[in-house]
Amino acid sequence: MKNLITTILLTICFSAAYPQMKRMPLEAISSLTRMYPDIDMKTVDWGKYNKYYTAGFNKKGEYHKVYMEKDGSWVLTEIKRVSENDLPDKVKVILAKPDFKSWQITYIKALHDPLVTSYEIKLEKGSKNKFLYLDENGNNIKKISVIRSKKYYAKK
Questions:
Q1: Are 37 and 52 in contact (CB under 8 A)?
Q2: Which of 15, 64, 68, 83 is the most buried (most CB within 10 A)?
Q3: What is the pLDDT of residues 126-135, one digit of tens each?
Q4: How many domains does the chain have?
């Protein structure tokens, strides 16, 4: 109960100081504070994507974008600029295969949702681009984002 009262008071204070937060449901703000207690709420970029509320911020040099329902339920977190070194070994094995060895990785995005962690990897070779969607076990998946569909992921 004490934590709830503290969260509500902090949210009210931040909302008064940062007008951008006034458009956000109290539950989404409270949820973000519980999920990421170490981020500076003054640096959070609040927004809305379709029916989801979003909170974007930098943490340890990586840009995070958290998607939440109006009730504060966590839907998805995107982490941009993930290092190749931070990929799971099973994903690294896939990228080392001859099919991809001649391609250059231009960016990696991690996608965390309640069911799975997956990686969107953009590859480039000359003027050609290719996207890979791999789960944490290196399985090739067709990404059907929870943001755009009721389904989470479907195997290719």
A1: no
A2: 68
A3: 999 999 999 9
A4: 1
